[in-house]
UniProtKB/TrEMBL annotation:
InterPro entries: Aminoacid_DH-like_N_sf, Glu/Leu/Phe/Val/Trp_DH, Glu/Leu/Phe/Val/Trp_DH_C, Glu/Leu/Phe/Val/Trp_DH_dimer, Glu/Leu/Phe/Val_DH_AS, Glu_DH, NAD(P)-bd_dom_sf, NAD_bind_Glu_DH
GO molecular function: glutamate dehydrogenase (NAD+) activity; nucleotide binding
Family statement: Belongs to the Glu/Leu/Phe/Val dehydrogenases family.
PROSITE patterns: GLFV_DEHYDROGENASE (PS00074)
Residues in Glutamate/phenylalanine/leucine/valine/L-tryptophan dehydrogenase C-terminal domain copies: 194-423
CDD domains xrefs: NAD_bind_1_Glu_DH
Protein name per Swiss-Prot or TrEMBL: Glutamate dehydrogenase
Keyword Nucleotide-binding: yes
Lineage of origin: Bacteria, Bacillati, Bacillota, Bacilli, Bacillales
Annotated source species: Peribacillus psychrosaccharolyticus (Bacillus psychrosaccharolyticus)
Ligand binding (substrate): K81, K105, S359
Alphabetical UniProt keywords: NAD, Nucleotide-binding, Oxidoreductase
Length: 425
């Protein structure tokens, strides 16, 4: 009995292993495109993974040693690019998977980058401002040899923000004895940040929702929307949907969800949420995240964490369109179930690529020293994402594959070709 239970648990863990599931889809995508096995061998893991130890003297005088990672998936196309996550659950395997997703995103929106990702095992919710600054600077010192404006360009991710990017840019500039805004993106505007960066991921998700709604013959105005996660991605998205005339009937954070079939007061919730995207603690009548995902709605946007839609709840999803703002919220099995049920799933590597696209704009502006208006940024983003969505959608139809596999096929092709031209495979 015990052994059997252990086996179930192991197989569930294996199914939820984001690195393994990413590798499975990359393998399929390369097979469909006709690439030989050695291309998969090259692309299934990052080219480089650095593990670092970061000592920080905490406010109470004790020294704590934090573990950090930086993964560089593939730099055949250009420098690697990707965010830094501060979270207690960061693991080496997760950082590796996230770096591969970044490569795919850059391929899908056709940026001159490969993918990278970083993470530190820590809980910023329990750290002071001063401790966070020391940790951010210590991380940059630890990874400084492998990053830089033409090598690997970090950015924000879960629980990191423009202030952390500013400290990191300052530390790198000191080490490099030069002002280096192009070292990192997601900076405050006064330090060379780009207009539109903070809301770029949500803007990109909104553009994908508009395109997906057209394909499904649904009007966004009046559509019922549920958003899981009320952080950077989820809260801006809820606001954009609300402003577009959609009825946001459900939102959630790590502590629970809020539901109102008549529509939630998004402006009020935005005003009350804290900097970690928490708002539901202020309310008595909450629902669980599990209930939230299964609510009656037209559009469901997971914008929180991995493995939220699985084979256990995929049959109960009522939405007609699922757009993944989060990285890895839907398992491979659930992708198949949703696709078979006729639900249009817009995968993470496409839907959440607005962030890296505007990060690229920020880097271009830093390199040229000439800055664009918010309208220019939005116009450029819209053009790129509409084109990318339709590339993936058309490939899914012409090759009769699901949207995730189609997105991987588009995303992996550029780095496979670049690796081949360089003579690596
Ligand atoms: P964030 O830290 O700003 O917000 C995360 C939100 O998710 C918070 O509201 C938090 O309470 C909630 N959350 C955490 N654990 C949860 C749980 N177990 N159940 C339900 N909700 C939970 O993070 P973010 O930047 O908005 O990122 C969210 C997702 O979007 C991540 O998967 C991230 O990788 C992805 N993403 C973000 C960006 C970006 O530019 N911010 C870009 C691409 C992808």
């Amino acid at each position: 009995m015990v052994a059997e239970k252990g086996t179930d648990h192991d197989s569930q863990q294996e199914k939820n292993d984001v690195l393994k599931s990413t590798q499975t889809v990359i393998h399929k995508a390369l097979d469909k495109l006709g690439y030989p096995e050695e291309v998969y061998e090259l692309l299934k893991e990052p080219l480089r993974l650095l593990t670092v130890k970061i000592p920080v003297r905490m406010d109470d005088g004790a020294v704590r040693i934090f573990t950090g990672y930086r993964a560089q998936h593939n730099d055949a196309v250009g420098p690697t690019k990707g965010g830094i996550r501060f979270h207690p659950n960061v693991t080496e395997r997760e950082v590796k998977a996230l770096s591969i997703w970044m490569s795919l995103k850059c391929g899908i929106v056709d940026l001159p980058y490969g993918g990278g990702k970083g993470g530190i095992v820590c809980d910023p919710r329990n750290m002071s401002f001063r401790e966070l600054e020391k940790l951010s600077r210590g991380y940059v010192r630890a990874i400084s040899q492998i990053v830089g404006p033409t090598k690997d360009i970090p950015a924000p991710d879960v629980f990191t923000n423009s202030q952390i990017m500013a400290w990191m840019m300052d530390e790198y500039s000191r080490l490099d004895s030069s002002n280096s805004p192009g070292f990192i993106t997601g900076k405050p505007l006064v330090l060379g940040g780009s207009h539109g960066r903070e809301s770029a991921t949500a803007k990109g998700v909104t553009i994908c929702i508009n395109e997906a709604a057209k394909k499904k013959g649904i009007s966004v105005k009046g559509a019922r929307v549920v958003v899981q996660g009320f952080g950077n991605a989820g809260s801006f998205l809820a606001k954009f949907m609300h402003d577009a005339g959609a009825v946001v009937v459900g939102i959630s954070d790590a502590y629970g969800g809020l539901y109102d079939p008549k529509g939630l007061d998004i402006d009020y919730l935005l005003d009350r949420r804290d900097s970690f995207g928490t708002v539901t603690k202020l309310f008595k009548n909450t629902i669980t995240n599990k209930e939230l995902l299964e609510l009656e709605c037209d559009i469901l946007v997971p914008a929180a964490i991995e493995n939220q839609i699985t084979e256990e709840n995929a049959h109960n999803i009522k939405a007609k369109i699922v757009v993944e703002a989060a990285n890895g919220p839907t398992t491979i099995e659930a992708t198949q179930i949703l696709t078979e049920r006729g639900i249009l799933l817009v995968p993470d590597v496409l839907a959440s690529s607005g962030g890296v696209t505007v990060s690229y704009f920020e880097w271009v502006q830093n390199n040229q020293g000439y800055y664009w208006s918010e309208e220019e940024v939005e116009e450029k983003l819209e053009k790129i994402l509409v084109k990318s969505f339709n590339n993936v959608y058309e490939l899914a139809h012409s090759r009769r594959v699901d949207m995730r596999l189609a997105a991987y096929m588009v995303g992996v092709r550029k780095m496979a070709e670049a690796s081949r031209f360089r003579g690596w495979v």
